[in-house]
């Protein structure tokens, strides 16, 4: 849409096609134009003194409006070409020794990251997050679909590669679950936000294992419920192709279902974990030591079989937990 | 010398961000200095000194902090030049949210934090609206959804700015900010250069120390509300 069209079309028509434009007027707190009025006429009717308080004049206001519309347009269509492949080219470890790896991550893949505290797991994540181009201490480089990311886009912070989930994250908004999800859906400019909200809510309840209502304030959710809602929301609404999961082992959610959900939603899942069940659920494990990727282990058949045995053990543990919760005694031979 | 103004509400993490980014700049061989503008007191002097960064602190005391800022900034720039800095970072708290210390042709950074709530971007005003780079801190303790909503709200208010999450504790995300700072314009003097936004006006009896309340006591530039 041209600048002229944006400024000359009646606001009611504009809002029908681009509901997000309402936010521009709301944010400026200058009132809403009448339905038949076009933005240009509305702007012309505003007092210069009123605009001066906002540091604007009539021309700057019109320019800002066009800027806003363009930006939102771009934002809405930004997800049209999702990243199909993320490549990591090795750099060097803390001693400066070369890190001889080239890793490719594809949507729907689960990659675990293991290594002791201080080994360089966070560095690896940070490199992916800022799309390192040999300009971080590790010297690593990140390619998106075989190409280095556009430097201007990288500096603008517009493309966020990594969505993050960790035990330390909390909800801080004073909103109900439904209001919260609606707000997120609106900020992602999705077309049918109501349907998306219902879908995420249902998924979160399923993952949590303990029911909650959409009217519950997000800050009143239990640890498990919050984690479940965060995972469901990230899977369905976040634009970032990579999801980094840090320590969800004790979160009280169905971890396997959570992973399945992220995989189904075509996320690249990177998981820092030493939980045997989770670590062996991955397709590969990156072993980090001394600031570098030391080894890339592909989960073997034997390991997968062991994971199934561990799962059986886990189910038995879970049954004991449930029994305790119901007030039963555990005085049998385990 | 490169110059940058860095502003944000109190406790948004400005000093931590400056410290993290200064580490990276020092590694790149740049000499970095800081001027800290504050109101009543500031412990940040020690934090900078401990990090080995030359710093000058200016306390506005009984004056409007932004008027105090603008009256001292040019002398600050000359101090920075004499000290031989490659980059001078000028940090100030935009206390009334109506203030903006940003200057034309000088890189302007606004620091706000995820914990301040999703309505904050709309309330902050010129300090955020006129910034070139918006740094969002404290992302490590809120949910992904809240980070995304917050960043979206920032972009609504200032579509042109770069929006960068930075963790003030670990420095994660500081690299991109560091690149913006390295690209800042060279400034030798601010003589005759303009602010991006006018400062809040005030010239009334209270500016001059009046403390009594009442119609008879308010003289000068006074604006009254309509309670009818």
Strands of the widest sheet of chain B, in order across it, are 3-2-4-1-5-6-7
The total strand number of chain B stands at 7
Strand content of chain B: 15-25%
- What's the helical proportion of residues of chain A? 40-55%
Spatial shape of chain A: globular
The total count of helices of chain A amounts to 14
The whole-angstrom Rg of chain B is 18 Å
Distance from N terminus to C terminus of chain A (CA atoms, Å) equals 69 Å
Largest interface: pair, residues per side: A-B, 47 and 40 residues
N-to-C series of helices and strands of chain B? EHEHEHEEHHEHEH
Give the tally of β-strands of chain A.
9
Please identify the oligomeric state.
heterodimer
Mean pLDDT of chain A: 87
Radius of gyration of chain A: 25 Å
Average pLDDT level of chain B? 89
Strand residue percentage of chain A: 5-15%
Number of helical regions of chain B: 7
Summary keywords:
heterodimer; A: 334 residues; alpha/beta; 9 strands; 13% strand; globular; B: 228 residues; seven-stranded parallel sheet; 7 helices; 7 strands
Q: Outline of this structure?
A:
Chain A: Keywords: ATP-binding, Nucleotide-binding, Transport. Chain A has 334 residues and is an alpha/beta fold.
Account of the protein in words:
The complex is a heterodimer of chains A (334) and B (228). Chain A has 334 residues and is of the alpha/beta class. Chain A has 14 helices and 9 strands. Chain B has 7 helices and 7 strands. In chain B, α2 (44-50) links the parallel β2 and β3. The longest helix of chain B has 18 residues, at 65-82. The model of chain B has no long low-confidence stretch (mean pLDDT 89). At the A-B interface, α3, α6, α7, α8 and β5 of A face α6, β7 and α7 of B.
């Amino acid at each position: 849409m041209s600048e002229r069209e944006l400024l000359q079309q009646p606001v009611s028509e504009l809002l029908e096609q681009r509901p997000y434009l309402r936010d521009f007027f709301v944010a400026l707190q200058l009132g809403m134009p009448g339905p038949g009025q076009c933005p240009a006429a509305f702007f012309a009717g505003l007092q210069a003194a009123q605009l001066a308080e906002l540091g604007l004049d009539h021309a700057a206001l019109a320019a800002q409006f066009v800027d806003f519309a363009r930006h939102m347009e771009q934002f809405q269509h930004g997800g049209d070409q999702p990243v199909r492949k993320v490549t990591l080219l090795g750099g060097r470890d803390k001693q400066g020794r070369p890190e001889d790896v080239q890793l490719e991550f594809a949507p729907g893949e689960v990659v675990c990251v293991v290594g002791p505290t201080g080994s360089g797991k966070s560095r690896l994540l940070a490199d992916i997050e800022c799309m390192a181009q040999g300009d971080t201490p590790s010297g690593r480089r990140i390619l998106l679909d075989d190409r280095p990311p556009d430097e201007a886009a990288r500096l603008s912070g517009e493309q966020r590669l990594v969505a993050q989930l960790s035990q330390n994250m909390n909800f801080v908004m004073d909103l109900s679950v439904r209001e919260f999800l609606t707000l997120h859906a609106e900020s992602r400019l999705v077309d049918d936000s109501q349907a998306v909200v219902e879908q995420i809510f249902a998924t979160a309840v399923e993952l949590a294992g303990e029911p909650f209502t959409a009217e519950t304030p997000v800050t009143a959710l239990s640890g498990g419920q919050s984690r479940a809602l965060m995972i469901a929301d990230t899977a369905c609404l976040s634009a970032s192709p990579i999801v980094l999961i840090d320590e969800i082992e004790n979160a009280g959610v169905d971890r396997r279902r959570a992973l399945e959900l992220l995989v189904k939603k075509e996320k690249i899942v990177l998981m820092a974990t030493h939980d045997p069940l989770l670590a062996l659920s991955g397709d590969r494990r990156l072993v980090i030591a001394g600031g570098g990727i030391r080894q890339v282990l592909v989960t073997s058949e034997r390991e997968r079989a062991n994971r199934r045995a561990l799962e059986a053990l886990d189910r038995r543990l879970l049954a004991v937990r449930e029994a305790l919760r119901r007030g039963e005694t555990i005085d049998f031979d385990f | 010398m490169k110059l940058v103004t860095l502003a944000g509400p109190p406790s948004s993490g400005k000093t931590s961000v400056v410290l993290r980014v200064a580490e990276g700049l020092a590694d790149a061989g740049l000499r970095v200095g800081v001027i800290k503008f504050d109101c009543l007191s500031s412990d940040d002097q020690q934090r900078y000194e401990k990090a080995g960064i030359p710093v000058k602190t200016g306390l506005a005391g009984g004056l409007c902090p932004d008027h105090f800022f603008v009256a001292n900034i040019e002398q600050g720039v000359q101090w920075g030049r004499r000290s031989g800095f490659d980059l001078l970072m000028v940090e100030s708290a935009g206390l009334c949210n109506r203030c903006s210390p940003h200057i034309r042709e000088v890189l302007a950074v606004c620091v706000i934090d995820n914990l301040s709530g999703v309505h904050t971007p709309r309330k902050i005003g010129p300090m955020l609206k006129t910034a070139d780079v918006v740094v969002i801190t404290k992302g490590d303790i809120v949910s992904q959804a809240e980070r995304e909503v917050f960043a979206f709200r920032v972009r609504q208010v200032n579509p042109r700015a770069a929006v960068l999450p930075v963790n003030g504790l670990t420095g994660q995300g500081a690299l991109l900010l560091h690149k913006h700072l390295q690209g800042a314009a060279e400034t030798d003097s601010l003589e005759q250069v303009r602010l991006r936004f006018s400062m809040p006006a005030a010239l009334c009896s209270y500016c001059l120390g009046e403390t009594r309340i009442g119609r008879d006591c308010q003289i000068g530039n006074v604006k009254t509300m309509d309670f009818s």
